[in-house]
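input
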Amino acid sequence: MSLQEMVSRHPQVENETEELILASRHAMLCSLFCTSCADACVAEMTADGMDMSQCIRNCLDCADICAATARLGVRRTAQNIEVLRAQIELCIKACETCAAECEGHDNEHCAWCAKMCRECADDCRKALPTIH
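output
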């Protein structure tokens, strides 16, 4: 089963966009990656005494924004297009901010988080023109 199959079964879906579904899926995954990265950063701070507070903050902000984006992206009843577009734009900004921060750290979890954030931002950019 896929997310696209689920959304297509909604009684008010006429023209679901593959781009929005993919962006929602990536946002959901990005939320999990960012949460995991923040948790790993906490462990690094404890073990190495490194100040990872900005990375943790950016990851947790991005995780929350991505989770909300995923939820808004799959709702079809009485859509609020302006809010959805604003949320997608916010997700792009949060992902870019988190990726830039994570790219400044030399560890695998930050590298993976940055990659996922970049992919999520790209998919959100592709979805924006389809939301109307």
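quick obs: The chain is about 75% helix and 0% strand.
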